Amino acid sequence: NFSPSNTIEFRLFRSTTSREELTACLEAVQLIVELAQEWDIREVLTTPFSRVLGEAEVRGYEDFVNLWLSK
After folding, report:
1. Rounded CA gap, 28 and 50, in Å?
2. Of 7, 39, 55, 71, which residue is least crowded by CB atoms under 10 Å?
3. pLDDT digit of tens for each residue in the chain (71 aa)?
């Protein structure tokens, strides 16, 4: 969803009552935004998820990393 025009709405996650899962989802969105600002389109399209997960770990997105590795 791109309305209003200066926003982007993320609809990626199911609802949860778990604090850790909610924090992991917020961290995932923050990571997506950061990587979109830093990487060119070629990097976005060709980077393996293992590198994205590594970036999350380096940036301190602990709940996101832990949730992903527990699945």
Report:
1. 14
2. 71
3. 556 777 777 777 778 888 999 999 999 999 999 999 999 999 988 999 999 999 999 999 999 999 999 97
Determine the straight-line distance between the first and last CA of the chain, rounded to whole angstroms.
28
Tell me the two tokens of residue 63: 């709940």
Burial of 49 (0-12, 13-18, 19+ CB in 10 A): exposed
How far apart, in whole angstroms, are the C-alpha atoms of residue 34 and residue 23?
16
| Diameter over CA atoms, the chain | 37
